[in-house]
Amino acid sequence: MKSHQTTIIDIARELNLSKSTVSRALTGHPNVKQQTREAVLALAEKMEYQRNQMSISLITNKTKTIGIIVPEFVTSFFSQVIIGAQEEARKSDYNVLISQCNEDYNTEVDNAQLMMRNRVDGIIVSLTKETKNFDHLRTFQRRGIPIVFFNRVCEEIMAPKVIVNDYDAAFKAVEHLIKTGKKRIAHLAGPPSLAISRKRQNGYIDALKKHNLPIDEDLIIGYDLNMSKVKIYIKHFMDMDNPPDGLFAINDPTAMEAMQVIKQLGKRIPEDIGVVGFSNDYASQFAEPSLTTVAVPVNEMGKTAVKLLMDMIDKDPADWKLLVKVLDTELIVRNSTVRKA
């Protein structure tokens, strides 16, 4: 026997109302009496009515869905951002469509097109390491669909952004290494295509300058975030005639991989070389030794991005505000730089 799914016709017949009245009551239309709205909602719940979101979107021109595009799920960083974003979206009764790009530009383009086909009301985006062309994201703005960037942002598109002060955080991380007595500090940097890589490298350089330490280009290597290459670069550093006694890594996964290689080479951390990461990845506290890192408020980053997006969704594009929210970071000192009892 075929089961019957409750429709607005069933609710209308039960309450002796028109279909249009029931539909307006279910979508929160202001021209419906409060008593009628309450009766419709109560019966809808009793009859286990499931709204047809596609039909509602045709009426309201809203799908009540936002998209999130992230570069990868390898680390805990972006999953934590998404958790915060989902929590905030639920407050406005919004669904979330999530996609990850495996650090591939073409996949990012495909995911953006998927979001467009699903008629999302807005998107929040963090770029892949390969992204240098932004036409697929400009399309959203041309169609009046708001976009908010976070963490890995596009500086060429005028849109709200949620970031941390990467320069200042990197400066403090390197200065911490210097204050522990390290004088020859290497930097395993990220791809120069990413603004966060450039800002963190600038912070590294200026911290050395402030403390009158030389800038040795041989101690700076930018890489494509492919973990398999970390062993090559760290071995190169440690095989130098005058190897580094400190390392500032672009992120925690890089730093933790580097520590494994350093230990395999028979070096002590932090006695022979101190190591600092960036992002406070969940695993960083459990590494051996535990990793000194820069903590980023990832949950807050997701929530803030969605708040900015929600503020734009119901407004004319001419009224969109191009805000840049800069969140605070914190240097978390652990055993990879200061061996604690």
UniProtKB/TrEMBL annotation:
Occurrences of domain HTH lacI-type (ranges): 6-60
SUPFAM superfamilies hit by this protein: lambda repressor-like DNA-binding domains, Periplasmic binding protein-like I
Alphabetically ordered keywords of this record: DNA-binding, Transcription, Transcription regulation
UniProt keyword annotation of Cytoplasm present: no
Origin superkingdom: Bacteria
Keyword Membrane (UniProt): no
Family matches, as SMART domains: HTH_LACI
GO molecular function terms noted in the UniProt entry: DNA-binding transcription factor activity; transcription cis-regulatory region binding
UniProt cross-references to Gene3D superfamilies, sorted A to Z: 3.40.50.2300, lambda repressor-like DNA-binding domains
Protein name: LacI family transcriptional regulator
Species name: Mucilaginibacter yixingensis
Taxonomic lineage from the root: Bacteria, Pseudomonadati, Bacteroidota, Sphingobacteriia, Sphingobacteriales
